[in-house]
């Protein structure tokens, strides 16, 4: 059985290696694309501007956008004069006055707010060369991250520490492989499948150890990911999804017309489903192992049936979690469509909403399929390894 597991997993590992070699760009290629995006067509956020940190000293009332000394023409149509002291950049310690739109969708600034400005170059003392682009959020995010890491380690101890290392590996794969490969024009679906295979091959053994149990969970995850990839490709084509959206359109403007927006949508479906999928497969495999440990004499059919009862409860809650996660992400969009007075049919078939429906249903089908597949595979494997001369570690 261990030889059979290896025979099934080795081709997957080889496919991941081939994907890494053929899809990963060189550092020079990615640097060139990033440089063109930053200086040419205006990247999202700061674009070609230099980020400068500052602190709000004063935020005056609404005034005319051409002159802070004049009143605003109408409520919500003017600007707020914000005085900011620069804390770094070309002129640290300098105070500048900049105008910020006072529209309902614009942020509000208060005295003491740490902000990020974009400096367009030129005279560092000229206020017209600066624009407030965002708030500084580094400190609260670091505190939250430290609290999360502490909670994981306190509960999981060494396994929790391994989970944090695995999280770092996952972020590293996304930052060092997925983003550069997509930015340089590699096909998004193979990139997502390669990255998912790499994450499964590294994260599962790192978190749960190297064993037949881990190999079984990995096989169940990879098989379900393959199904999700096929369904995503088929139904994105049948639904005529384009992948166009506000962020995607902006990205296309940065990277050029060669960007495969539908492929980018499909890659997001695959990577997004992986986060829930490995949870289901690992849990099902562990349930089978523990049921077998409690009664090693259990027949295959009984072992499968008992684990499936656990799996049905798990997959029901996991599907609900997936739906709520996508609904939460699209909540402003759903509210906007609802206020527009569009019917339910128009709402559900609109491009932006249809994308989320395809994500949810394709991911849910993959989750549902992973339960019986992984459970059956785990039941067969655990009975085989428990009768082998070498005992299988828990």
Automatic annotation (TrEMBL):
Keywords: Membrane, Transmembrane, Transmembrane helix. The chain crosses the membrane at residues 138-155, 162-183, 189-207, 219-239, 259-277, 318-341, 361-382. InterPro entries: YibE_F. This is YibE/F family protein. It comes from Actinomycetospora lemnae.
């Amino acid at each position: 059985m261990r030889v059979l597991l290896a025979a099934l997993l080795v081709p997957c590992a080889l496919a991941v290696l081939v994907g890494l070699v053929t899809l990963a760009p060189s550092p020079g290629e990615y640097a060139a694309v990033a440089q063109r995006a930053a200086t040419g067509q205006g990247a999202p956020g700061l674009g070609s501007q230099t980020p400068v940190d500052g602190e709000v000293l004063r935020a005056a009332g609404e005034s005319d956008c051409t002159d802070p000394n004049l009143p605003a023409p109408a409520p919500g149509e003017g600007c707020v004069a914000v005085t900011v002291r620069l804390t770094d950049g070309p002129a640290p310690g300098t105070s500048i006055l900049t105008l910020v739109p006072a529209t309902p969708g614009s942020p509000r600034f208060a005295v003491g707010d740490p902000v990020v400005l974009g400096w367009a170059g030129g005279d560092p003392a000229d206020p017209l060369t600066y624009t407030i682009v965002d708030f500084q959020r580094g400190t609260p995010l670091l505190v939250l991250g430290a609290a999360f890491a502490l909670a994981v380690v306190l509960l999981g101890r060494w396994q929790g520490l391994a989970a944090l290392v695995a999280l770092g590996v996952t972020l590293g794969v996304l930052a060092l492989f997925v983003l550069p490969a997509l930015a340089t024009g590699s096909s998004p679906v193979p990139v997502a499948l390669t990255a998912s295979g790499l994450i499964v091959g590294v994260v599962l053994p790192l978190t749960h150890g190297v064993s037949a149990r881990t190999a079984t969970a990995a096989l169940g995850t990879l098989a379900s990911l393959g199904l999700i990839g096929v369904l995503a490709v088929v139904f994105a084509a049948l639904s005529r999804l384009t992948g166009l959206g506000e962020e995607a359109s902006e990205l296309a403007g940065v990277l050029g017309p060669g960007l495969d927006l539908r492929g980018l949508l499909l890659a997001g479906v695959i990577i997004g489903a992986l986060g829930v999928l490995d949870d289901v497969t690992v849990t099902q495999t562990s349930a089978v192992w523990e049921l077998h440990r409690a009664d090693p004499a259990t027949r295959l059919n009984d072992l499968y049936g008992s684990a499936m009862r656990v799996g049905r409860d798990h997959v029901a809650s996991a599907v609900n979690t997936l739906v709520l996660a996508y609904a939460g992400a699209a909540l402003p969009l759903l509210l906007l469509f609802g206020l527009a007075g569009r019917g339910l049919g128009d709402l559900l078939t609109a491009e932006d909403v249809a994308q989320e429906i395809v994500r949810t249903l394709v991911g849910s089908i993959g989750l549902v399929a992973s339960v019986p597949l992984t459970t059956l595979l785990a039941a067969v494997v655990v009975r085989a390894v428990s009768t082998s001369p070498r005992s299988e570690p828990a």
